[in-house]
Specification:
Strand content: under 5%
Oligomer: single chain
Helix content: over 70%
Radius of gyration: 24 Å
Number of domains: 2
Largest sheet: none
Shape: flat
Structural class: mainly alpha
Low-confidence stretches: 276-280
CATH superfamily of the largest domain: MetI-like
Number of helices: 14
Order of helices and strands: HHHHHHHHHHHHHH
Mean pLDDT: 86
CATH class of the largest domain: Mainly Alpha
Distance between the termini: 39 Å
């Protein structure tokens, strides 16, 4: 193959790759763009055929209707508080458990880890009734603790951290720290934590988004409007007689913006951590 033909083949491969990535990007962004278009148009324009494909001038009106219908900012604060506390708790507790399963030897370790993996196969809906009974006995109904406490530990988080620590924290480094007199927690905090920052970022993105978007469990245990999370509060925008799609999509759009911000922030930290590790 001549040098010119090889260069043309490389250029064609790059153009084709960027073309595929461009299509994937458009397909990924389009639902969010379409939601924004509907959030900026009136109900009449949304129901028109063909539908509008450009943003309208009803963004402020629709969002004002949202504020007049539900306690939007109060629900957003509840969701942010619950999601942040659960995410921080999961990162700490799951990384601690993952470190124990990856680097410590204790009786029944393999059995306990397999038991944790088995719990991942059980649908969460099967635990709603016993979990609700426990919450009722503790008198935690209509309290954010009913969401926070059960979510502080996560089987997937333990599995994820265990696998990451096993492959990225050398046993020799842990043994050297123990010989130098470090306690188990100090080995975890000073040796393991700096290495697993990328795993923290990935798990934080997954857990924060999962808790933020959770609807079923908050709907069951949070009955007072003052304790509603944003997903439960958005249900109040749906009227049985008049359906204002512009208002509904406006509330949904602004409820999605914090997720995008969190994703971008943690995604940058994830990439920066990988780059830093590669340089080291």
């Amino acid at each position: 193959m001549s040098k010119g033909s090889y260069s043309k083949q490389v250029v064609f491969s790059k153009v084709f790759l960027y073309f595929i990535l461009g299509i994937a990007t458009v397909l990924s962004i389009f639902p969010f763009y379409w939601m924004f278009v509907m959030a900026t148009n009136s109900n009449e324009v949304i129901n028109r055929i063909p539908p509008a494909i450009l943003p309208g001038d009803a963004l402020v009106t629709n969002f004002t209707n949202v504020l007049n219908t539900i306690d939007f900012f109060g629900a957003m604060w509840n969701s942010f508080l619950v999601s942040s506390i659960i995410t921080i708790g999961v990162l700490f507790l799951c990384s601690l458990a993952g470190f124990a399963f990856a680097k410590l030897n204790f009786k029944g370790k393999n059995f306990l880890f397999i038991f944790i993996l088995v719990t991942m196969m059980i649908p969460p809906q099967l635990g709603l009734v016993p979990q609700y009974i426990i919450i009722t006995k503790l008198d935690w109904l209509n309290d954010l603790k009913a969401i926070i406490v059960p979510g502080l530990i996560d089987a997937f988080g333990i599995f994820w951290m265990r696998q990451y620590i096993s492959s990225n924290v050398p046993d020799e480094l842990v043994d050297a720290a123990k010989i130098d007199g470090c306690s188990i927690f100090r080995v975890y905090w000073n040796i393991a934590v700096p290495v697993i920052i990328p795993a923290f970022a990935t798990l934080a993105i997954i857990k924060f988004m999962y808790v933020w978007n959770d609807f079923l469990w908050p709907l069951i245990v949070l009955r007072e409007k003052e304790t509603h999370t944003i997903q439960v509060a958005l249900r109040g925008l749906i009227d049985n007689y008049v359906r204002d799609n512009g208002m509904i999509l406006s509330g949904t759009f602004w409820a999605t913006v914090p997720l995008i911000i969190i994703f971008l922030l943690l995604n940058r930290m994830f990439i920066a951590s990988l780059t830093e590790g590669a340089v080291k």
